[in-house]
Amino acid sequence: MTDLTRLKVSLTKHNAHKVARLLKEYDAAQVFDRLDEVHAEAAQARKNLSTLQGDLLPPVWGKVKALGDNAIDALVLIAIIFSHRELIEAMQSASGRQGFSGRIERANQLDGKAYTNFVQIIDSLGYATKREYEGVTFNLKGIFEIPGLAPLVRELLEMKLVEARWDRSNSVAEEAVRLKFHRVFGVASNELKDWLNADAQPPSAGSPLLPKDEEFFQEETEGSGAKPFEFKSGHVERDVEPLTRSPSAKSRANRLHNDIQNKLYAHLKGRLGAKNVGTELDTGGGTAIDVATQVKNQITFYEIKTGSSVRASIRQALPQLLEYAFWPQDRRANELVIVSHLPITKAADRYLEFLRTEFNLPISYRQFDLKTNSLL
After folding, report:
1. Are the CB atoms for 138 and 91 separated by under 8 Å?
2. Other C-beta atoms lying within 10 Å of the C-beta of residue 50
3. Distances (CA, A) of 183 to 91, 140, 162, 179
4. CA 366 – CA 338 distance, rounded (Å)
């Protein structure tokens, strides 16, 4: 039977995470010759990287280099966690666990140098979202967003399990779930199995932003001068295909967005007439608004969001609507409407009311009810 107490490595030595830098800069075969450059302790590095005889690194470390720096950071973090039973248990018992996120607290999960070193590891490898004296908050979602990483994680976990005297009577994924490794990652047991066996991304992983939204938030150029907005009526029906067995976050967001857009257009067309409703219209600045209406020269922009909360939807939509309507110094719309499938919350209602009264922004939030196909 697998004995996790056999997984031991010094938790009080500094710089365990810095082998990631060596893996990025040198061939895997050179890493142990370069440990002094990052002041990493050799015995600790051997345990964490599951080295073979003669200080040779297992093939998995050569493979991960092909996936890029983010993959190296992710695999090094996983290797460190699964090199010591106490780190595995610390992650399994993380405070305030919500999916991929959780918190390692001083004197709770870990203490002393073990705590400070692990906090440094999580932070340095890019998975800390908030670091304080009392604790570090982490989010492991990015691990599941790296294409091709899952088979390497399975390969690495197999080595750790063998070190813990796993008898190979079941698969790596099955043994990982039996040992509750899914709690380390913050996913369901079946999600960890699917990820390890088929590189199937957990439904809650991945970016929920649509490609055009990702482009909006990543665009860094000032762009050319904006042209006047020209309203055009009409709509091209968007595809709303059935979801696959393990849809990505992006796939689910795209399907929901298309469904709302199709039905919102139909709803507004029924109320205002087909000649007064258009979709995917060029704002004049190289961007496109989901839905727009024109009634007696009054233009309204509708931006559809499918965030997991009202706050997330407002956070995504607000900068887009402001730019669509006013960049760089113009008024292309009289009203701005954030549309989501979720009912507005009291806090969100107060926030938008404050924006309207304090800054005179013509912004509002409307829920689109998919059961009644109506705008509430």
Report:
1. no
2. 20
3. 7, 12, 20, 9
4. 6
pLDDT tens sequence across 146-165: 999 999 999 999 999 999 99
Task: Say whether both 37 and 171 belong to one domain.
Answer: yes
CATH code, domain with 307: 3.40.91
With beta carbons less than 8 A apart as the criterion, state whether 109 and 95 touch: yes
Structure tokens at 340: 């989501």
Same domain, residue pair 192 and 225: no
How many other C-beta atoms are found inside a 10 Å radius of the C-beta of residue 363? 21
DSSP code for 56: B
The rounded Cα 26 to chain-centroid distance in angstroms is 29
Alpha-carbon Rg for the chain, nearest whole angstrom, is 25
Instruction: Determine, yes or no, domain membership for 187.
Output: yes
pLDDT value at 298 more than 80: yes
pLDDT tens digits for range 302-328:
999 998 899 999 999 999 999 999 988
Considering the domain architecture, whether residues 166 and 104 belong to the same structural domain is answered as yes
Sheet strand arrangement including 135-139:
95-98, 101-105, 135-139, 128-131
Output the pTM of the full model.
0.72
Is residue 205 in a domain? no
**138 near 125, Cβ under 8 Å?**
no
Sort 1 into a burial class: Cβ within 10 Å, 0-12 / 13-18 / 19+. Answer: exposed
16 is written with which tokens? 């365990």
